[in-house]
Amino acid sequence: MTGWFSKTIRIFSWACGMAFTSIIFFFIGYLLYRGAGSLSLKLIFENTGVIDAVLLRKQVLGGLFPAIAGTIILVLLSVGIAVPIGVAAGIHMAEYARGRWKEALGFFFDILASVPSIVIGLFGLSLSVYLHRTFFPKLYPSLIISALSLAVLVLPYIIRSTQYALESIPESTRIIAPALGASRLQNILYVLIPRASSGILGGIVLAVGRCAEDTAVIMLTGAVAFAGVSRSLFSGYEALPFYIYYISSQYADPAELAEGYAASLILLAICAVFFGVSFIIQKGVESRALYGP
Amino acid sequence: MDNKLKISINDLHFSYKDKSVLSGASLRIMENTINAIVGPSGIGKSTFLTTLNRLWDTTSAEMTGKIEIFFHGVPQDIYDPRFPETTLRRKVGMVFQAPNPLPMSIFRNVAFPLKLAGKTSRGETEESVEKALRQAFLWDEVKDRLHKDALLLSGGQQQRLCIARALVLAPEVLLLDEPTSSLDEKAGAVIEELLVELKKNCTMVIVSHYLAQVDRIADTVHELVGGKFVTGRR
Amino acid sequence: MKALTEKSVVAVFRGSAFLSAGAAALILGFLLVFGLPLFREGRIFSLVTTMWAPAEGRYGILPMLAGTAAIASLGVVLSIPLSFGAAALISVFAPRRWGRFFRAVFLMATGIPTVIYGFVGIFLLAPFVREFFDAGSGLCVLSAALMLAVLVTPTMTIFFVHGFDRTPRSYLQAVDALGGNDVQKLLYVILPGAWRHIIGGITLAAGRAQGDTLLALMLSGNAARIPGEPLESARTLTAHIALVFAADHESPEFLSIFVCGLMLYLFSTLTVVVLRRLEAPFRRQHR
């Protein structure tokens, strides 16, 4: 192989890596440049006192606080729904399901993981329309519908990370407790789950990040541009990613646009924190890249 | 030595993924003796041990034959479907090749089988743990740091901890799979000594590679040849 | 008593697994039930083969199918060489430290919210495309596809890297022993051995690209007609759902989004089938 050919390939390869890296850093730098200046407490809380706002003593009408609070509430609700079901299903996959059943269940989880989030949003929307027509005439797209839909969205991550964390425990560890008279369930609860906890936790943290960033699901299931901090599960709510989307198409003046940049920075920071945490908890963060949004 | 039968193994056939390990193996093991299982590596000695507490992998292996253990003098077919394997494993303890303490304190490691068995009275637990640690020659070394992480102990201490953990439910049979092979000579000697002491309470089946060790401690030697046992000297 | 609690806990595990799998089926079920009026009238075939012209009472989603095909395929095609180059760099060419750095950057990039890519795209990329190509608003197939390439490149790269890293050390040593260099290693040993991961990475990226909503919605201009060239505006299936979902629930516009949903579900299932085929030998190895 001639020298220039090898050299070209190497240069191309370095160029690809460098180009992509600079694009990403350029994006982040651009957001910092445009957004950092306008980032302030006033931007978040408008004219309401910080303590009053956080304790929900006063309604914050402007500012980013309602969107930030909405995102946090939404994440807590969806992850609260998805974690128990997902972890239990993951345990079933790793410790009980065998053969054809395991294959079939895995196939469904793969589909669930790959269905576009807008389709899951559409599912949430039609669920609320259906319930509205049949059992609950007062039900409209709302916080609870979004939380349910997002729970469906992140279920496969939690299931798979639980399953893989359990399956990677070596046989020599698996037999310790049974040799001491443990039942299968005791072995799972006392030895295997604690041993797999970092992997399971890593999956949960990634699910949190997914819930915080998703826009397509919530725009169909109840997110609105202005609602204040929502006080009920059955009302519309504000959320950061939807706010960013809304600003990008509907901003009226430079001040609103600046809010959009600031909101992007805050969302980026929130996701970076969760991503970093899961990075530390488990090196297997790469599974997200493969399973991801 | 009173010659009471403890374990009776009759015409055992065992195959793992179509590979025959035992074919027509029979063996009689007497109470309060140390029985060494010897033979070249990879011939299935460890697998044989797991047939005595049903710890083998039922999804990829098959077994026929009959194993009876006399618990308090009463024979029990240990593969009787009405006889739960958890009960069996509480009466037949096992110690593995490499020490395998769980990532918890010394005390909680030894108390773990009691928790599994649903015995939770605090005083009783403390009493049993101390007794087991004394039996395993470990009490004096750890009594001041019972609540420290078990993984901080030396290899020999960890293995004795695992023996204590296996003894805490007062099993009648103890299975040992090359228990000193991962330890240095000195640590191994302590364990040999304690096994001889344990004969008062337990019947032991030990897999060992060291013929010198077998000579020192075993009452009976069974060699595994072509899937059957040939019982040797002493 | 104890055995009973154990049994019920195990039943809860099983129930959760089936409930989760049921969710995947339920999504399909809802799409079908809501799209039912269209099936009854047998209009589903004509809907996917005709144009979108609500004023004339035509609600075909052919332009959206074309929009999705154009934007997703252009995005994936743009990201393939980039991902190959980057994966070769991380896995083969870069010194250990740099390899780890680039790997971290690509992993981090998978964690950036899509809406932020879209936001940056509107205010940074679209003006650039507008100036550079002198193309109207700059909201067009090319803008969406370029940003989509940025979105799927890290995923594809990491998938490739996994494949490259599986190459047995002995093969690499054999090339070294024969006096081969790193480029020859890559071309003659690593790439041929990683073909499953290469197809897998591309399939995964294609699945991700066709399912993306935000970038297309924010950057493609959303005109419901078949794009003739990259600088024209287009609308994807996903963007169509996001644009029309607020319409009257009895209207044909509203019904058309369930056809879009069905199409997207179908494509996703297809990618899953392909990926599982490719993975099958590895999975058997593990069990």
Account of the 3D structure:
The complex is a heterotrimer of chains A (293), B (234) and C (287). Chain A has 293 residues and is an all-alpha fold. Chain A has helices spanning 3-35, 41-45, 50-54, 65-96, 99-114, 117-134, 143-167, 171-174, 176-179, 184-213, 216-221, 240-250, 254-281, 286-291. Chain A has a single domain, classed as MetI-like fold (Orthogonal Bundle). Helices cover 76% and strands 0% of the residues of chain A. In chain A, helix 10 (184-213) runs antiparallel to helix 13. Chain B is α/β, with parallel strands linked by helices and 234 residues long. In chain B, helix 3 (106-116) runs parallel beside helix 6 (155-167). Chain C is an all-alpha fold. The model of chain C has no long low-confidence stretch (mean pLDDT 85).
List keywords for this structure.
heterotrimer, A: 293 residues, mainly alpha, MetI-like fold, 14 helices, globular, disordered C terminus, C: 287 residues, two-stranded antiparallel sheet, 13 helices, 77% helix
| Biggest sheet features of chain A | none
Work out the largest interface and the residue count of each chain: A-C, 90 and 93 residues
Shape of chain A: globular
CATH topological fold name of chain B: Rossmann fold
Nearest-angstrom radius of gyration of chain A?
A: 23 Å
| CATH 4th-level superfamily of chain A | MetI-like
- Helix percentage of chain B: 25-40%
Order of helices and strands of chain A: HHHHHHHHHHHHHH
Biggest sheet layout of chain B: 6 strands, mixed
Shape of chain B: globular
Summarize the structure.
The complex is a heterotrimer of chains A (293), B (234) and C (287). Chain B has 234 residues and is α/β, with parallel strands linked by helices.
